[in-house]
Design brief:
Strands 1-2-4-3 form a 4-stranded antiparallel sheet, sandwiched between helices. By secondary structure, the protein is an alpha+beta fold. It contains 5 helices and 4 strands, in the order E-H-H-E-H-E-H-E-H. It has a single domain (7-126), classed as NADH Oxidase. The radius of gyration is 17 Å and the shape is globular. It has helices spanning 14-20, 28-31, 47-70, 83-90, 123-126, and strands at 7-11, 35-42, 74-78, 96-105. It is 36% helix and 21% strand.
Length: 132
Amino acid sequence: MNQQAWDFVVVTERGRLREVAKAWRYAAHVAGSAATIALVVPASDDRDERDTFQYDVGQATMSIMLAATDLGIGSGHASVGDQALVRSVLGVPEDRECAILVALGYPADRPLEPIAHPNRRVLDDVVHRERW
């Protein structure tokens, strides 16, 4: 439906990155990133609207991460548990919430390369034909 209900806050200031990293227990990598993008959506009590926003922001997240990879930039996403912290640090309005953080940077120890043998489920375990 092309709502484009998202906004993006690009964060590069080191102190701000350290603070934003505290918004979720698995967001420590944000503190050391070269930049992090906070994906912000309208806050909503309507489940259908919330689900649509989450779906759309998921696609935006994947697009950001794929574009970064194409440029040789590593990325890692993180959820946001502490909305009040993010609002305070990034100035996110009360009628919005930060759906996800995407940390970006060049890997320090090696160039970004495809993983030769990613740990993924076997296709036949994932794809069901005609019925489960």
